[in-house]
Amino acid sequence: MLRISKKAEYGMIALQRIAQSGETVAAKEIAEDFGISFDLLAKVLNQLSKAGLLIAYHGIQGGYALAKKPTDITVADILVILEGTLRITDCADHSHEECGCSIDAKCSIKTPMQLIQERMKNVFESMTLADMIVKTQTVQLHSIQI
Amino acid sequence: MLRISKKAEYGMIALQRIAQSGETVAAKEIAEDFGISFDLLAKVLNQLSKAGLLIAYHGIQGGYALAKKPTDITVADILVILEGTLRITDCADHSHEECGCSIDAKCSIKTPMQLIQERMKNVFESMTLADMIVKTQTVQLHSIQI
DNA sequence: ACAATATAGGACTGAAATAGTCGTATATAT
DNA sequence: ATATATACGACTATTTCAGTCCTATATTGT
């Protein structure tokens, strides 16, 4: 039902954490801080570094650091890396001229689905990691002031 | 990976078909026309009629007719009926004050996820069945002209 | 009344995607 | 050297999704 996967969720949490700290952070630290599976998180961070969003450092004092500016990393980027290209229905796929769905040439919802998918893509592209940092810092400042 | 379910897809195809014909259409006819599972489609149409989008007529000459104007049925309505309320992540759920995700109070992506979910909801609410009829008719007119 | 047809609804099965685990290899700082 | 961190493949469990099957109920036409 149009849910974002745990992998993508963990990816966003980790990237937000790394971006906010501004330095290198180990997978173990993130997993412990948020109480999530280290193994799964490690896979996610590996994918993100292979895709060029993170730089991985091995060994003691190692971890992950951002490979790009927070303003240059969008939610869309993260989703594509961890969940693959957005394709809400088979017929919404722009890459095929023929409608890939079971309904063949008769598919009557192709155009509307393509439109909706395009708009969803815009939503994901319009939020960057930088936006996610600002939101959280605001909350933190409030709690500090109390 | 953020896919729309077959149930929702069949629902949209069926509603589009019924809206376009402007009269009562039997589930069997739709299933045959589009080559999709009759049993699954029947369930979907039943759900849509229970939810008040369709009126069901039993017996010979029976079938389903729209219960509302095509302009009053949105993609969001259809998705909520057939897939449940949109909830892209646990923490994006506005109905709970406490973050339902495994990360408890520390969840750092709650606000951004709520924002994205709200925007997706707007996308789904901004397309009506009427829009889907117009789109398809245009295509059909083109193929007739050839 | 009866037969044909259409929806209603529950039980069940199979397939696919998702989430998570485990073991081992490789790189690196001290 | 060794402790620590990432890399990576294999494997399992869980959940969701799609589809089927069977039976019941309502309605129309003859």
CATH class division of the largest domain in chain A: Mainly Alpha
Biggest sheet strand line-up of chain A: 1-2
What is the approximate shape of chain A? elongated
Number of strands of chain A: 2
Largest interface: A-B, 46 and 46 residues
Give the helix level of chain A as a range of percent.
40-55%
Rounded to an integer, what's the Rg of chain A over CA atoms?
18 Å
In the CATH classification, which architecture of the largest domain in chain A applies? Answer: Orthogonal Bundle
Q: Summarize the main sheet of chain A.
A: 2 strands, antiparallel
What does the model show?
The first copy, chain A, is 54% helix and 5% strand. The first copy, chain A, has a two-stranded antiparallel sheet with strand order 1-2. In chain A, α1 (6-21) crosses α3 (38-50) and α1 (6-21) crosses α4 (75-83). With 146 residues, chain A is mainly alpha-helical. Chain A folds into two domains: 1-73 and 128-146, Winged helix-like DNA-binding domain superfamily/Winged helix DNA-binding domain (Arc Repressor Mutant, subunit A, Orthogonal Bundle), CATH 1.10.10.10; 85-127, no CATH class. Chains A and B meet through α1, α4, α5 and α6 of A and α1, α4, α5 and α6 of B. Chain A binds a DNA duplex (30 and 30 nucleotides) through residues 1, 5-7, 26-28, 37, 39-40, 42-43, 45-46, 49-50, 56-64.
